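Entry for pyridoxal-5'-phosphate complex. Fields follow.
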Amino acid sequence: MIDVHKLRKDFPILEKKIHGKPLVYLDNAATTQKPKMVLDEIIEFYSSINSNIHRGVHYLSEQASIAYENARKTVKGFLNAKSDYEIVFTSGTTQAINLVANSFGSKFIEEGDEIIVSEMEHHSNIVPWQILCERTQAELKVAPFDDDGKLMMDELKGLITEKTKLIAIVYVSNALGVVNPIKEIIEMAHTQDIPVLIDGAQAVQHFPVDVQELDCDFFAFSGHKMYAETGIGVLYGKEKWLEDMPPHHSGGGMVDSVTFEKTTYADLPFKFEAGTGNYVAAVSLAKAIEYISKLSMMEITIYENDLLKYATEKLDAIDGLMIYGLAPKRCGLISFNLDNIHPYDVGMILDKLGIAIRTGTHCAEPVMEHFGINATIRASFAFYNTKEEIDKLIDGMHKARVMLCK
Ligand code: PLP
């Protein structure tokens, strides 16, 4: 069982006071806080073995390279990938999706082809496909969701044609917290040999993910949203796709040999890791995985689902509060508005109370457009949050209501 009061001590920043009030950090979907174990690992790496990876035969370089490749093995285990060379380190989800859009796109997408995304995507899983479609004269199709935020599966099915070359879809919406039926989508796509990319940026930190069981073709996530340092992310890709895809960035580290006449490329995954990557952050990601694995992913899921249920009930009871995306399967976050008050004004009042929530479009403008709104207030949870913190949010909302409702 999660002993929240004990494990909160692992996160130094949670001791902080903001405007004289204890910090209530409910902006975890934007980025999570880091446990001391991860922070210590970063200092230890720089203090004891820092050196560029895969570059030298000297002791430090070898030690740093071993740590980096061990981090890859840890990620492989975390996702249950078949092999470590299916794990490509990127700077984050955004870069991982761009890698597929550029590399898969240049090899497999032609004029007249179709790519399907959903209406609830983060901009990171829209814009790279739009740019690719503009470049290749392919078509971007959009699967809608209903007013509960539930993806409309029949509509999605209806969009698939023999020209569909890829479905790119978010596992958990960062604007609504809705969990999509990814396995069903993958099964449906695979009956027609269509590969599926999953944006897992809001999934891996909340519940176990097994890429072999899902049978997804690509899976992207960011380290900073799951207790690791910023600047590291992962693209999982099935070997058969990664082998077939050309490099998307080029330079040092991704080559086998270079002459002015011809360059040959390194094997997977190095073909996709040009230049000096953020190897220290990769090691921090492995530490973060170690940390959450010790807590147990299943326990995290149970604890966070209970927090979300509690927050939903309490918020729903506030007069004039509108929750967006009440589909049955949700996790990690809740998005809402209060009467006609601008979310920024609520955000400012909550901030003065030490409560950090997110206000805005959450980089998902089409979701805002669906509901005919400009922005929402979003509270997003981690396993270090407590029901007492949710009570403070509720109190804050009542205060905001009194102050802002005329
Ligand atoms: N996809 C989703 C669903 C997200 O929530 C985010 C970030 O909020 C991203 C993609 C982009 O992640 P990053 O900025 O770490 O690349």
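NOTE: DSSP finds 14 helices and 17 strands in the chain.
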